Amino acid sequence: MRFLFSLKWRLLLSFLGIFLLTGMVNFLPDENVILKVAVIVGLLVAYFILGNFLINRLVLGQIKPFILISKRIAQNDLSNLPAVNVNNEFQILGESVDQMLSNLRGILRENLDASEQLALAANEMSGMVQEVSVATEQITNTMDQMSKATQEQFESTHLSVLATQQMAETAQGIASEAQKASTYSSQAAERAQKGEESIGQIHAMILQLQETVDNSAEVVRRLGMRSVEIGKIVDVMRGISRQTNLLALNAAIEAARAGEHGRGFSVVADEVRALAEQSTNSAIQIVALINEIQTETKAAVEAMEIGTRMVDDVTTLAISAKDAFSDITQSVNQTVGTIHEIAAASEEQAASSEEMTTSMQTVASIAKQNVNGAKQVAAATEEQKSNMSKLAESSTNLVDMAERLTALVGRFKVKSDFQRCWRVLDCNYINCPAYQSREEKCWLIPDTICGGIPNGSVKDKRSTCHQCEVFKVNTTVKKSE
């Protein structure tokens, strides 16, 4: 059956019939020229009518579905296209067109979804790139500040290293001087100890001297007392001498009275008187000597008393000096101990200063490495900032391309039951560009008044569209399919 109704065989049979009729004209007699002409004209008319019929019926009639489909495609409408139902060679073309349209609708749906998702992703990426650019700018500024701070830290650390080295040298000098002071203090302590011992010996000698002076003073006092007693004896001797002289005078008087018999007694009396006079003179001399002795003894006693008082004062001073030397010795010992501690602490400080110097040098080296690292990071951040600027420009271009792609792909209508995202019959804005538009979505039309956002991004337009009830319905229908 398919062979009988084939367009090719129909045309062949029609032309074969025409050729047979034309051949039959040749069998007519030559006398019937008018009949031949009439038959030829009739055949030509029949051929024209039959050809027109065959072309309209068999060719143009089969092409009409393709023309209708082409017009719908030219209007960007791929929804509810009629199926191509032919039973000849055009059936293969129709099936291919149907398959092509089905594939094209699927591709456009996928491209529309992908373009919308690409637009959203590109817009989000643009926002993220802007945020990253801002963060990169902040990081760049922070790294610049860190680089400056690290440089200042390195300089401060370098100064600290120099100061620590000077402090270490000073501590070493202090330790050396403290060691010398410790030696001198030890020597001073030894000398103070010897001085204390010498003061002790002097104090002992002063005590002995005081005892000797006291004994001498006592002896002199006793000597004075004895001179007084001697004076008393001399007074007795003078009295005896006066009495003897008086007795001698009386004896001479009595001898003179006796005359010749008393001459011997007179001689004795003269001798006795002479002895009495000598005794008197001796007593006078003794008295004079005793007076001198008493005077000198008194002076000696007074001198001894003064010496005793001076010895007492010297003893007191010696005791004070001994106590002072004892205090000095104790203070010197404490000073020696303190200086020893200072020397030990100075040595520890010198060692700590050397360790600190080493640590500060290490810190300075690390700070220098940090400076170099900060400079490298700053350079890398600056390079990243430049790359982010290029990426931001690329993301902006990508957003524009995604919006253009979404707009281009969105112009194709692939579903017949989608409502338009604006209600033209209910719209009061006659001047709205969407009023006369055939677009399916408001956000695909620039400068719309109701529902669309003029010159906005796809993300902003989609956020506004999501508030539209019709858009929600379209989205729900689209997802369900």
What does this protein structure show overall?
The chain crosses the membrane at residues 37-55. GO terms for molecular function: transmembrane signaling receptor activity. Keywords: Membrane, Transducer, Transmembrane, Transmembrane helix. The protein is mainly α. Among the domains are: 183-360, Helix Hairpins; 417-481, no CATH class. Helices cover 83% and strands 0% of the residues. It contains six helices and no strands. It is rod-shaped. The protein starts with 6 loop residues before the first helix and ends with a helix. The model is unreliable at 1-5, 416-431 and 449-455 (pLDDT under 50).
Task: List strands and helices in order, with pairings.
Layout: H1 7-26, H2 33-74, H3 89-258, H4 263-410, H5 458-465, H6 469-480
Helix pairs in contact: 1-2, 3-4
The CATH superfamily of the domain at 183-360 is known as Methyl-accepting chemotaxis protein
Q: Rg to the nearest angstrom?
A: 77 Å
Question: What's the CATH class of the domain at 183-360, please?
Answer: Mainly Alpha
How many extended strands? 0
By secondary-structure content and strand pairing, the structural class works out as mainly alpha
Unreliable segments of 5+ consecutive residues: 1-5, 416-431, 449-455
What is the H-and-E element order?
HHHHHH
Q: Count of helices?
A: 6
For the record, the CATH architecture of the domain at 183-360 stands as Orthogonal Bundle
Estimate what percentage of residues fall within beta strands.
under 5%
- End-to-end distance: 39 Å
Helix content: over 70%
Main beta sheet strand tally, sense and closure: none
Provide mean pLDDT, rounded. 67
This entry's quaternary arrangement is single chain
Q: Rough shape?
A: rod-shaped
What is the fold named in CATH at topology level of the domain at 183-360?
Helix Hairpins
GO molecular function, one term: transmembrane signaling receptor activity
Protein name: Methyl-accepting chemotaxis protein
Pfam families: MCPsignal
Keywords: Membrane, Transducer, Transmembrane, Transmembrane helix
